[in-house]
Amino acid sequence: MGKMGAVLRTKAAFWHSDILVVADPLALWHIDVKNPNDYVKSNLSRALVRRLMGESLVWAEGTEHKKLRAAFAPCFSFLKVREMESVVLKAADMLVGSMKNYIIAMQSKTSNKSLRSNPPIIMNLSGWTNKATLDVIGRVGFDFDFGLGESPEARELSRIWEEQARESATFAGFVGFLAMRAFPFLASLPIKAMEKQSAYKLYVRSIGSKIAGSKIARIQGEDDSKDDSDIISAFIRYSRKEGSEASVDKLLDHFTTFIQAGNDTTATSVNYALLTLAQHPEVQTHLRNELEDFGREPTFDDLHNKDVLKFLDAVTKESLRMFPVGAHSERVALKDDYCHYRSLSVLLMVVF
Ligand code: HEM
User: Which residue out of 53, 58, 65, 133 has the highest number of ligand 1 atoms within 8 Å of its CB and is therefore the one to mutate?
Assistant: First the structure.
């Protein structure tokens, strides 16, 4: 990108037609925000999303997508997110507490052997942060307690997710993805990495079914005017508007999607931020000084105001910019198009 610019055309593997890689913010806005109906998800990405999450917001297109967005929007309003503050802080507190305990326990084991006090401990952060983010999405989204990663459900989920990530990170997983783009039918073959993805979805659905059925039955009977802006109530209202009964099967797809989209994305973003801080101790010290000078636990409103903790705001934004968890998403242009980006213009061709 540094050499070729923010829009480039590249060859694709296995006789697939050329691909236009777009990284310019204005062109991305043109594609994703202004004209989403002209740039649909590829058959492959929809097949993969269906396998991993089911037919929900990430999978839907066109009018269905628009209606679902509107239906779930009240669950993520400014006020609603502010209400999540205590849950997020509690999960962060519990995480810090259990990490401290782990470090102390490991240090005492090591120091006995080496007679060193406070030896450095190497920890794999990813297992830890996921516990906190899963806890938060479980509580705020579905009133479900994952016990800060210690409940049997959370442990099993983490085991399946790790297995799936290991299979996808192999060379076969990499080539498989390229081959599937050219031959989408491969997505339905019993490939190991893909089966693991299904296993994750099936397990999340089994957790969801424990809570969804009874909640639907309870909420179904309730008055429409009740301001219940949790995800399950939003889905029931959406179904009523569409003139149908809320289907547990469809709800489980939404449950799976929010659990997945809200968990690993956030944990991975936190992990990259912490890794980068560890690699840049001077930045870490600057940030610690800013937080210590602040003198109290920042509230949601403090964090939402970019002028309150300026350095924290900059570190967070820079980290999200440098390590975007959704760095790559595929769209297919349904027709030839023309758009402006920065001072130039770009001709967007049909890529499939
Ligand atoms: C640091 C945290 C997060 C990052 C970086 C992130 C990033 C993204 C990106 C890049 C997309 C667009 C994907 C595409 O169009 O191909 C997306 C979509 C989505 N995210 Fe997140 N996300 C984060 C947290 C969350 C959380 C906490 C939730 C839920 C509670 C969530 C739910 C969703 C959903 C439902 C979609 C699909 C939206 C649609 O198709 O209209 N995400 N996210």
Answer: 58
259 and 170 housed in the same domain: yes
Note whether 67 and 188 are same-domain residues.
yes
- Are 149 and 213 found together in one domain? yes
CA–centroid distance, 260 to ligand 1, in Å, is 10
Torsion of CA 320, 88, 201, 13, to 10 degrees: 0
Q: How many domains does the chain have?
A: 3
72 Cβ below 6 A of ligand 1:
no
Residue 265 CB–ligand 1 contact under 6 Å: yes
Q: Is the pLDDT of residue 248 over 90?
A: no
Give pTM, 2 decimals. Answer: 0.85
Distance CA 60, CA 50 (A): 10
**Contact between residue 164 and residue 196 where contact means Cβ atoms under 8 Å apart:** yes
Instruction: Say yes or no: 21 and 47 in one domain.
Output: no
| Residues 99 and 230 placed together within one structural domain of the fold | yes
Shared domain check, 181 and 57: yes
pLDDT value of position 45: 84
Any ligand 1 atom below 6 A from CB of 137: yes
Question: Does one domain contain both 205 and 338?
Answer: no
Shortest-distance atom of ligand 1 to CA 60: 40
Structural domain boundaries, residue 202: 43-275
Looking at the structure, tell me whether residues 154 and 261 fall in a common domain. Answer: yes
Contact between 292 and 92 under an 8 Å Cβ cutoff? The reply is no
Residue-wise pLDDT for 52-107, tens only, equals 889 999 999 999 999 999 999 999 999 999 999 999 999 999 999 988 999 888 88
* Torsion angle (degrees, nearest 10) of CA 271, 275, 281, 283: -50
Q: Give the pLDDT band (50/70/90) at residue 240.
A: confident
User: Does residue 341's CB lie within 6 angstroms of at least one atom of ligand 1?
Assistant: no
Dist CA 20 CA 5 (whole Å): 12
